[in-house]
Amino acid sequence: MQTLTTTSLRIRKSQLWILDQQALPQRAEWHLCRSVDDLVGHIHALRVRGAPLIGLSASLLLAQLAEEGMPVADLHKALITLRESRPTAVNLMNNLDRMKVALEQRFHVPAMVQEAEGLVGEDRELCSRIANNGAALVTQGSRLLTHCNTGGLATAGVGTALGVIHRAHQQGKVSQVWVDETRPLLQGGRLTAWELGELGIPYKLICDSMAASLMAKRQVDAVWVGADRIAANGDVANKIGTYSLAVLARYHGIPFYVAAPHTTHDPHCPNGDAIPIEQRAAKEVTGVSGSFGDVQWAPVDADVYNPAFDVTPAELISGWVLDSGVVTPAQVAEGIFKRKFD
Ligand code: MRU
């Protein structure tokens, strides 16, 4: 494979390295991924996270294993294991479906390398188009609220919702970003705050429960979030807490935008109820862990509900900002998401 660099992935001498998104922002630690077990462990621990990045890292690892001479039957098993590593973000399945086609070629090694490298270049391009399409919707002097992390860390390019914010900031239209800390795993407080700081974009970090009062005070002009899966009726799965922001935005008359590449769209999934939602460990809610250490505040035996994602119904979404353009609620009602995008 060629040398390759994104914010959180590197290929060096045909080896995959990943930036540990659990160690950030305190430490920038890179881990070498040698095996499927390595990468699945990193994905489960959210050291590798974000819908596009999960699919890209799995594809690059498969290409690496093919180059190292792994037999075809084992590559098929590896592909299935990687496909099952997280259930909600459909980018993983979409990317691996393409890698499977490459694996079935007569000369599968160059085909897989070309496909994996192509997916990375493609994601970079998709992010750039999303950023341009979305920035056109941002009005002068906007105060934008975002949830989770949808930036360069989560993609091969400038990001999705955060890419829009970045582009709109370059155009001089963003005065302030409100960053939801994003409990329980703090992707906003740890990662989005760090990325915005690196980009020189002014932000204020808030606890998730503060969004309502900010909206009531007319301090939020629009909400921008990413997506892990867009169903055929336009319902969107994204980080837990997204749905409550959409309800709040509707109540306060604030536009609520979803930014995602077409690789996040699943025309086979009829609606949000059919999207598999990952349930995660109790300890993520009873305390917090990171490069800063482990803290437990709840009773050790506390019973916990910890879904990683929720579903925002299409009726609460003002626009789906894709690489191909902005999809309107009227187009969704006409069934635009029932067809495949490419
Ligand atoms: O559990 P995570 O951190 O992988 O969840 C990520 C999100 O919910 C993002 O909003 C989504 O994947 C889009 S990333 C461009």
Automatic annotation (TrEMBL):
Its EC number(s): 5.3.1.23
SUPFAM superfamilies, A to Z: NagB/RpiA/CoA transferase-like
The keyword ATP-binding appears for this protein: no
UniProt-annotated site: Transition state stabilizer, residues: C148
Keywords recorded for this protein, A-Z: Amino-acid biosynthesis, Isomerase, Methionine biosynthesis
Superkingdom field: Bacteria
InterPro entries hit by this protein: IF-2B-related, IF-M1Pi, IF_2B-like_C, Initiation_fac_2B_a/b/d, M1Pi_N, NagB/RpiA_transferase-like
Gene Ontology BP, a term: L-methionine salvage from methylthioadenosine
Binding locations of substrate: R49, G50, A51, R86, Q187, N238, K239
Pathway: Amino-acid biosynthesis; L-methionine biosynthesis via salvage pathway; L-methionine from S-methyl-5-thio-alpha-D-ribose 1-phosphate: step 1/6
Matches recorded under NCBIfam families: eIF-2B_rel (TIGR00524), PRK05720.1 (NF004326), salvage_mtnA (TIGR00512)
Family: Belongs to the EIF-2B alpha/beta/delta subunits family. MtnA subfamily.
Name of the protein described by the UniProt record: Methylthioribose-1-phosphate isomerase
